Amino acid sequence: MNASNHVRIVEVGPRDGLQNEKAMLAAAVKIELIDRLSATGLATIEATSFVSPKWVPQLADAAEVFLGIRKAPGVVYPVLVPNLQGYERAREVGATEVAVFTAASEAFNRKNINASIDESIERFVPVMERARADGVAVRGYVSTVLGCPYQGEVAVADVVRVARRLHELGCHEISLGDTIGVGTPAKARDMLRAVASEVPMSALAVHFHDTYGQALANILSCLEEGVRVVDSAVSGTGGCPYAKGATGNVASEDVVYMLHGMGMTTGVDLDRLVETGAWLAGQLGKDTASRVTRARTAV
Ligand code: HMG
Ligand code: MG
Asked: With 90 as the cut, is the pLDDT of residue 62 above it?
């Protein structure tokens, strides 16, 4: 059991959140979003994604956004890269932390990045080599850890194998993604426990989408297991455009509220986060998915 009371929130709203929103926000609005998030006390804000703009047009402005944000001291701004081309684009604008991503399901990986799991990992090898030489930290994502929209059930052994491989390759942190939000607490706990038998818990993060309303319960069961890094998106935006039926990430406001209520620390100012979430919902022209923001801003 992890005795630490501190949880690091990895805010993925500007990337995972905005990649799947119908509304196309202007780069200036995305920059304002990240600057606002930087003022909430968050230590890690995933800023954007250097993937193919044909595949994800919402983030075609990645370079402009990354260059435009104010880099607050003590905050890291990782970006997604699917291959060496993405890595080079990220480095051109000065990214110091990147994230590579693959899945535990072959069917999903094919749809999402047009590659098998093994092919995707082969693409990461030169990225990891370059990153090591450049002193760039690399996070690794494993998607579909609790179910796949195309293949259905995903074997825990497959999650363990892919997570271990990413860790062996040199990823400093592995984020375990319930891409379509179908997990439930006991399954989430068992999956995490199995991965933690091969990869140190201190190198693991959890990433829940909230399709079935299970995300907070899943996070709680993973905290009890010892994880201390949690991904979430302000206002509960987003999802993966190549995961049929996936809805938003768990809302950061709701995660922070729960953690503070449990006596845990995050370093995040909940009031500022709620303000940012309400502001973002206004920009997107839709209701926030955060229950906390709804409760706090109700008239
Ligand atoms: P492909 O079509 O197989 O790639 O796509 P390719 O290597 O054959 O290249 C095709 C074209 O794309 C070429 O351009 C390349 O230059 C260009 P053309 O000659 O046709 O003009 N290209 C690029 N352009 C800019 N940046 C790049 C890049 N790479 C190639 N980096 C590829 C393969 C991986 C590129 C594509 O499938 C892709 O970009 N996929 C990304 C999909 C995505 O972003 N999904 C969402 C993120 S994952 C997620 O949300 C899950 C997560 O949140 C965790 C969870 O919830 O589980 C992380
Ligand atoms: Mg995601």
From this structure: yes
